[in-house]
Amino acid sequence: MLDRRQFMLALAVGAYAPPLRAETAARPIHRVEIKGFAFEPARIEVRAGDTVEWINRDFAPHTATADNNGWDTGLLKKEATGRLVTTQPGVLSYHCAFHPHMEGVIIVVA
Predict the structure, then answer these.
(1) Under a CB-based contact definition with an 8 Å cutoff, are residues 94 and 103 in contact?
(2) How far is CA 103 from CA 11, 21, 51, 64, in A?
(3) Which of 38, 89, 96, 102 has the fewest CB atoms within 10 Å, i.e. is most exposed?
(4) Residues comprising the binding site?
(5) Running along the chain, 110 residues long, what does each successive block of 10 average in pLDDT?
(6) CB atoms < 10 A from the CB of 5, how many?
(7) What is the pTM of this model?
(8) Are the C-beta atoms of residues 108 and 94 closer than 8 Å to each other?
(9) Number of folded domains in the chain?
(10) CA neighbor of 94 nearest in space, from 55, 51, 38, 50
């Protein structure tokens, strides 16, 4: 049992302890593979705040570039990855800057 002095010391030390932080679950990463000159899957649905990751499995370089030019992964050589963190609901259409016939869509929901 604590005496009064021990209790006061424990109380004072507790007052200076750092606050506990709630752990939050990591947001999902949705992978899109680039292979055979196509995005697989070509259409994905994610939540706002999730990450989309592209990985290039082709020998040719590719990009994932927003149709409105609002974002771009940059040049992705074989086995390179690029990421986009989605921020708000909407439809994000994209293509490869080198091969415009390669198209994809990200549906971002709240």
Answers:
(1) yes
(2) 62, 42, 18, 9
(3) 89
(4) 62, 96, 99, 102
(5) 57 51 76 98 97 98 97 98 97 98 97
(6) 8
(7) 0.77
(8) no
(9) 1
(10) 38
> Has residue 32 been placed in a domain?
yes
Domain that holds residue 37: 27-109
Q: Write down the pLDDT at residue 73.
A: 97
End-to-end CA distance of the chain: 52
* Burial class of residue 6 in the structure, from the number of CB atoms within 10 Å of its CB (0-12 exposed, 13-18 middle, 19+ buried): exposed
Q: φ and ψ at 20, to 5 degrees?
A: -75, 140
Q: Please check whether residue 11 lies inside any domain of the structure.
A: no
pLDDT at res. 26? 83
Specify the CATH number for the domain of residue 81: 2.60.40.420
Q: Is residue 13 a part of any domain in this protein? A: no
